[in-house]
Amino acid sequence: MAIKQAIEGSSSYLMNTYNRFPLLLRKGRGMSVWSSEGKEYLDFVGGVAVNVLGHCHPKVVMAIQKQAQRLMHISNFYHIEQQIKLGKLLVENSFAQKAFFVNSGAEAVEAAIKLTRKYAKEHIGPERFEIITALQSFHGRTMGALSATGQEKFHKGFEPMLPGFRLVRYNDPKAIEAAINQHTCAVMLEPIQGEAGVRVPSPDYLKEVRKICDGHGILLILDEVQTGMGRTGKLFAYEHSGIAPDIMAVAKGIGNGMPMGVTLATDEVARAFGPGDHGSTFGGNPLACAAALATVETVLEDGILLDQCHRMGDYLMKKLEYLKKEFHSIIVDARGIGLLVGLEITRECSPIVTACMERGLLINCAAGNVLRFMPPLIVEEEDIDKMAGILEEVFERLS
Ligand SMILES: *Cc1c(COP(=O)(O)O)cnc(C)c1O
What we know:
By secondary structure, this protein is of the alpha/beta class.
């Protein structure tokens, strides 16, 4: 299929929910993808923080091939070996003691909401159902996750939102304290607000929120759908904060491209779910778990990749700080942790994204004016140099 046919085909047969670039990508390997025209692109989007190991990582490909030949799907009516192994690996490497597997970020958030409500009714109070979330947050597109999301633009046209969510300012523990009432059962936050434009809270924010939650006997839920799986140089971003949540939603990077998510919780909270309380036909099927097992094992292997993420994150930030000095009239701020980095500029960033694409670089735009960088964790200095060179050229033309 050529790009012209692809554009026509999408418009003829697919619902018009995405503003797609005129680009048809056919093949990927490591940091690169190739278009239908045979042009190579350096990928700093990574499928929106999904391809943590880069495209078509051999270990993940091998795991999928092997599992696909044996058994792809079997119901959760039966024990699933790969699911048990993956659950064990996640439990051994996080605060959690129990896992529930799903197929996407929104579903991981939904499971977190349902588990919270069930636990709250039994252990906090029968009238406790309200979850405090943050303005400008993003938790997904299903009705529950959407209602938790603090951005009106996503709500528009889909009202009424579900009751039971209260929005407060992000990075402001006092706002949480003030919003707690006789119905509150939990606070749900992203450790870094990704979709809002990589908004990084002050270093002690989560610690203060944890203290407030403990003081009121309510739960802390973290949405690590974007920040998890090594993205910030730790397996999970909460590890930077010195505290742990009670429940956590994880997805995006966990299967390196295999649709997969997980809700993790402490034993105490997880016990609120009993047989029949929640379920998913596909959740944690052998194929998805085999892919995720290979991905998580590789991310954790000797800490090499996490260390590299940390070092490359520093290197990327240095490059962006340099650009910020050079183009101080365009660039407002460079921020982020590890390889979740945002460059806030004084104008719409979509023309910059297009100009970069013409030069063989894929980057993302969040919140209209923040260039967001989420490359695979395997990114190397040469890739960052190349990316920064292209960006410099594009900024030069603008100024
Ligand atoms: C992407 C994202 C989601 C939604 O994930 P889907 O897989 O698209 O449903 C939820 N929360 C956060 C923080 C995200 O970045």
